[in-house]
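Quick one: structure tokens for this chain, please?
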Amino acid sequence: MHVLIVDDDLSLRSCLALLASNIGFTVTEAGDALEAFDKIKTTEFDAVVTDVQMPGGGGVELLRTMRGHKHTPPTYIHSSESTFLQNGEPAKLAPWISNHFGEFASFKIKDGRTLKNVKEFLESILSN
């Protein structure tokens, strides 16, 4: 199983990559959305873990791009913010992601349970 970890926070990305590797995933990392876009063009991932706000586009743009491909992996999206700008207007992330990408994406706020939540998400992918 292969996971793409996308986050501009190097320390968090490294922790998530180590976690995924320790539970059995092959890990590819990207430091921003542009790098992630390049990787999803050439590699089919079984899961994606991504931040929402990053340089070069964020997790929402990444979801849109992945949905345009033949294979859309289950995706875990996290953010320290509960809202983002959609067409210049603030939108609540959780319901917006659920409404637009609910079939394959889940959203959580970054908090003290981020590593636990990501581990549970990845373990659910392994068990399917």
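Residues 96 and 102 are 9 Å apart (CA to CA).
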